[in-house]
Amino acid sequence: MPSPQKILLIDDDATMAELIGFMVGAFRRGPLLVEHASTYEEGLRKLLTGTYGLCLLDYHLGPRDGLELLREAKTKQCHTPIIMLTGDSGEETDLAAMDGGAVDFMNKIELNPRSLERAVWYALKMSAAVDELRDLAAVDELTQLPNRREFDRRLQEEWERAVRFRRPLALVSLDLDRFKPINDTYGHPVGDEVLRHVARLLASQIRQSDCAARLGGDEFALILVETDRKGAQYVASRICALAAATPLQVAAKQLTLEVGISAGVATWPEDATNHEALIAAADADLYRVKRSRKLAAATAGRSVG
Fold first, then answer.
1. DSSP readout, 128-162?
2. Annotated active-site positions, please?
3. Which of 68, 146, 245, 271 has its CA 20 to 30 A from that of 201?
4. pTM (global) more than 0.70
5. For residue 295, is it within any domain?
6. Cβ neighbour number for residue 231 with a 10 Å cutoff
């Protein structure tokens, strides 16, 4: 039997909370479990945990109102769908709730098990569809890693957390060596296999709290939380060595391709004062590494000659 999906009810009226719990219990589909919070502060704290499939929010919460809570939750990136409940019948209240981010608005006087059930399941269904679209918008289709949009969001989020708590944060910028000749020689399908191979390698070498993303083309990046320069350089070196030691086998073409990766590292607080500057610093270090390799190769060629 599946675990019941949780609904958070935020309402300072204990009698109404009991009534809504009874109505939800009478739903024809389930299972659903109602958890009750009786104050603004308790309700917001529970809502922001992200563990609820839906929130039923009373418009009137003592000295503070549900509309204020709704707006505060949305500014804190809460994606839980919220249905506003009120005893008011004014159209202005309805519009204010919807403008604030509520998915629906229901008058308590008109509530019954069937109308509440329709509203709840519609909101849950729409939320699932929005979540699916959000996931698709955040993922690179080829590699299944987070894409540039999601990388930017995650980096800003981790930057703000690092600054707030004065904890180190590292960014590793990576790109593939000699990727264009692979595409030109063997075609883009093989190039795509190389990109997927690298994506799997990167994902296998980071912690769950970190983030590996494809930024576009053959460019990748790692966000390493709670990581200083020494730790980031170790991760970058380990990945480059692993890639060199793990050639790609393309069975369909009976090919064995060596895959080289170059990496640049930047850290906070040493290298940047904002997350955009951190990206620029990691890219600059990557270009420095690639220039050094080219110079070393050219010098070696002259020596042999």
1. HHHHHHHHHHHB-TTT-SB-HHHHHHHHHHHHHHH
2. 218
3. 271
4. no
5. yes
6. 15
